[in-house]
Here is the input.
Amino acid sequence: MLKDYRDRLFLILITIVIGIWATGNSYGQEEDGAMSTDSLFIPPLTYEYIPDATYDEMDERLKDIEGEIPLHFNDRVKSFIDYFTVRDREYTKAVVRKSTYYFPIFEEVLKKYEMPEELKYLAIVESGLNSVARSRAAAVGLWQFVYYTGKMYGLHADWYIDERMDPVKSTEAAARYIKSLYNMFGDWELALAAYNCGPGNVRKAIRRSGYKRKFWDIYRYLPRETRGYVPQFVAIMYTFNFAEEHNLLLDDSEYWYPMETDTIMVRQFTNLKTIAGMLDICDENMAILNPAIKRGAVPDVNKYFSIRIPADKKPLFVENREMILDSASRTGKKELEILAKNTVGSTYGRDKVIHRVRSGEVLGKIARQYHVRVADIRKWNNLRGNLIRVGQRLNIWLLPNGYTATARRKKPVKAQVKMENGTKYHIVQPGDTLWDISKAYNNLTIEKLKKLNNLKSNKIKPGQKLVVG
Here is the structure.
């Protein structure tokens, strides 16, 4: 803090010195008639006033805003407050700017699930209020869901659509997940820690601490990232509530204000840019309203999908619905389908299988086995290099008829049919996989097999009866 004070004092002194020099120099030239003061340009120095606050003041302010979630103050929290209010003020202003758009959405959902309103600040720690944020661990959206956790809470994700980017749906998923974590630990700080590193790591920290059950008691046993996670949440909450005291407020024109919206329902390929053009909607606004639509289009689906548009455009859409949807269904469809099939890591139109790495296998060999690219396997499994380990499970996404049996299986699976009460069953044999079985029954897809048999994974065992018709 002393250094910050010295820096500010230095800037003030420099400003005064330059001002005195400029004044004296221009007066002399005017008297000599050589040049007027108007011809001497000295660029103005811009200086943003950064108010200071003492340690005790910050402590008292946090006590004033503490609600259901504890807001402990210490040196770790203070260091984050200093970061948000002094060292990276531009980042703070950016999230303050977007908060007017996202916070009303968060508040409505949190109220619906009877959750503390202050949890809305957690999305800033997670994503900086960037609805399309993607982490190195492949966590996506405002609330940074990884694929499997998102799927567990009803967030669909494929090549075209990723509901982890949808503000409303992802916030509902986050509220449900955090609520389950709070019910698990009975403590809000531990629930927040578990949201970051997983409940397993929190339980491990509790055991290593001698079964203490408060965040700051198990702090040293948590992963490094999580040790900064809860302090950041407290610091962000402080910064937003005392933005004016730290000169972090913006002009009214700088804030993102939510517009009144309505939805249209489609169940066919629909190009958003075409709809935007025909309804005179800015492409950027269309993208902001529909961040879950990754490719600018909705694919052909078996269920209705909602597209959000400005409410004042809904009457025009209703009046011309048939013409607009017909045009939107024709534009860019073939181009996107070609792109979907050839983009590295695409899962469009593919079935997923799990490959368990065996001794001696490398990515190139596995790629040849499944007729996919090494780059695809790396993308599907978030691998940075080619290193894999024995026993590792790899996600492989296969095109229909894209897999050729290898030495692992010399002969295709034979139908092992058993009829019971008019239902056709396949009796699983040693070595059978869902993929092999799907090929034995007129290309019955893996997803269809799983749905018919209420399977949550691809795991099956010899002797098991699977419905195939």
